[in-house]
Amino acid sequence: MTAVEKRSVTIRGHRTSFSLEKPFYDDLVAIAASRSLSLAALVAEIDETRSRDANLSSALRLYVLAWAKRGGKAS
């Protein structure tokens, strides 16, 4: 198991932070690159579509999981 690391990005003009294990973070960076997006742009997209009941870190993990289940393909 890897430790959870806190990271910060600027989305829509404000700083926000999320906490992810390194494998989730690495996959998130790879997904952003495969979609020709910055990490901040991908995080903003996920943030805009997440349920307000879910925190951002959970939404990011679920996004990576869904991506992996689709075999690395966009929805």
Helical residue percent? 40-55%
Q: What topology, given as strand order, has the largest sheet? A: 1-2
Q: Let me know the largest β-sheet.
A: 2 strands, antiparallel
Mean pLDDT: 92
Spans of at least 5 consecutive residues with low confidence: none
Terminus-to-terminus distance: 28 Å
Strand content: 15-25%
What is the N-to-C order of secondary-structure elements (H for helix, E for strand)?
EEHHH
Q: What general outline do the C-alpha atoms trace? A: globular
Attribute tags:
75 residues; alpha+beta; two-stranded antiparallel ribbon; 3 helices; 2 strands
Please explain how this structure is put together.
With 75 residues, this protein is of the alpha+beta class. The protein contains 3 helices and 2 strands. The protein has helices at 22-34, 39-49, 56-69, and strands spanning 4-11, 14-21. Strand 1 and strand 2 form a beta hairpin. Helix 1 (22-34) packs across helix 3. The longest helix has 14 residues, at 56-69. The protein is globular. The mean pLDDT is 92.
SSE blueprint:
Layout: E1 4-11, E2 14-21, H1 22-34, H2 39-49, H3 56-69
Antiparallel strand pairs: 1-2
